[in-house]
Amino acid sequence: MRDPSVASRMTYSVLDACAARGHEQVTFFNYPEVGLKAIVAIHNTTLGPGLGGCRMRLYPSEGQALDDVLRLSEGMTYKSALAGLPLGGGKAIIMADPSMTQGREALFRKFGECLNALAGRYISAEDMGTSVRDIMWARSVTNFVVGTDAAKGGAGDPSPWTALGVFEAMRAAVAHASGGDSSLRGKRVAVQGVGHVGMFLVELLSKAGASIIVADPHDESVRKAAAEYGAQGVGLDQIYDVPCDIFSPCAVGQTVNAETLKRLSCSIIAGAANNQLPDSSVYGMIAEKKILYCPDFAINSGGVISVSVELAKGSPDTVWIREKVKEIYGTTSKVLEQSKARGRFTEEVAVELAKERLAAAKNRAKP
Ligand SMILES: NC(=O)c1ccc[n+]([C@@H]2O[C@H](COP(=O)([O-])OP(=O)(O)OC[C@H]3O[C@@H](n4cnc5c(N)ncnc54)[C@H](O)[C@@H]3O)[C@@H](O)[C@H]2O)c1
Predict the structure, then answer these.
(1) Domain 4-76+88-145 falls in which CATH fold?
(2) Residue 287, Cβ neighbours under 10 Å: how many?
(3) Minimal CA–CA distance to 245: which of 207, 191, 299?
(4) Protein residues with CB under 6 Å of any ligand 1 atom
(5) Choice from 146, 166, 196, 242 to test ligand 1 binding pocket (greatest atom count within 8 A of CB)
């Protein structure tokens, strides 16, 4: 150790950061021989092992990497709690170039060994920058991964299930706003991002008779949405100005912010992207505009529901997955109703409901 004072300052701030969000365990892994520098954050295991994907990214700093994994793992706790899953919250990040090819297999095998060291307190899966192939390499040395290859008995692509959950949330929000009718027929829905989830969502919306507007930097995806589902493509920046009933962020985080809110004219926001809001500073603005905001972690749990079945023995039960994902309708209604009744922002209510489930489980576990 060259400078112990640096280490002591770092330890202090790291533990502070963990304590601020209530994390149980944060583990750092460092194996330079395979280029593995990873952080695994386990936020809460009251309901079960912490489950969440593994992100691979070149972070601008270790501090930002830590922030990311702490924030995301906390979100997973609330997501699984609200979805009624026997799972806690966890997340992993690997600080490396996601496009790396050489030595990738060795890196993910080592990552698998790291998961073994955590003895099942954390279950990993694919996320931004990682793929099913990476997870399969880890799987060759550990049982503590899900979202494995459908051809090898895994649950396969979670995106259609995530899309179904978001679709159900949209129906619930429309019913809440209209006082009963959940039909999306004739509703104008602006979908930002037609990747894995967005395209499945567009398909569902088209079948439901909605009028769809999409934006995506991949022209090919926009063309497909137009040709197959009758969507109208607009520019990346234009999507914030299109008159619509529902704005659906399905691309990246923080696109619902102080600037874009000035332009959005929707009455509902419901999308798959994680962390759509930068922070609580926009709550007031959303409320003032009388927009019904469906909290991302409450409605994008279809994916985690689908991969969770791999933890049960036997082949994936799609009937169970569909029923569980459809419960997102009821969860969304509850969040919107309680938000109205309590006079609190929907995201705060969703966190409170998740914490109530955690507290109830803790009480039941008391001797
Ligand atoms: N895949 C899942 O099951 C799942 C589950 C939960 C949450 N999410 C979240 O939902 C979002 C979408 O996930 P995905 O799996 O579809 O990802 P994806 O990478 O397949 O799709 C994202 C799409 O957004 C587009 N995009 C990027 N920047 C954009 C911009 N500024 N404007 C418009 N489009 C833009 C990309 O070109 C891409 O087509 C992500 O935030 C992800 O974290 C996904």
Answers:
(1) Rossmann fold (3.40.50)
(2) 16
(3) 191
(4) 158-159, 162, 192-198, 215-218, 221, 236, 250-252, 272-274, 300, 303
(5) 196
Please, are residues 273 and 251 in contact by the beta-carbon 8 Å criterion? yes
Do residues 189 and 163 make contact, with C-beta atoms less than 8 angstroms apart?
no
Cα–Cα distance between 183 and 188 in angstroms, integer? Answer: 12
Atom of ligand 1 nearest to the CA of 271: 10
pLDDT digit string, tens, across residues 95-120: 999 999 999 999 999 999 999 999 99
Fold that domain 159-358 belongs to in CATH: Rossmann fold (3.40.50)
Nearest ligand 1 atom to alpha carbon 251: 24
For the chain, the domains span 4-76+88-145, 159-358
Which atom belonging to ligand 1 lies closest to the Cα atom of 306?
Answer: 3
Q: For this structure, is 91 an active site residue?
A: yes
Query: Do 4-76+88-145 and 159-358 agree at the fold level?
Result: yes
Provide the whole-model pTM: 0.92
Q: Which tokens belong to 231?
A: 């969507």
Span 278-323, pLDDT tens digits? 999 999 999 999 999 999 999 999 999 999 999 886 667 899 999 9
Name the nearest CA neighbour of 304 among 200, 196, 165, 202. Answer: 165
Return the amino acid letter for 304.
V
Q: How far apart are CA 64 and CA 59, in angstroms?
A: 7
* Ligand 1 geometric centre to CA of 154 (Å): 22
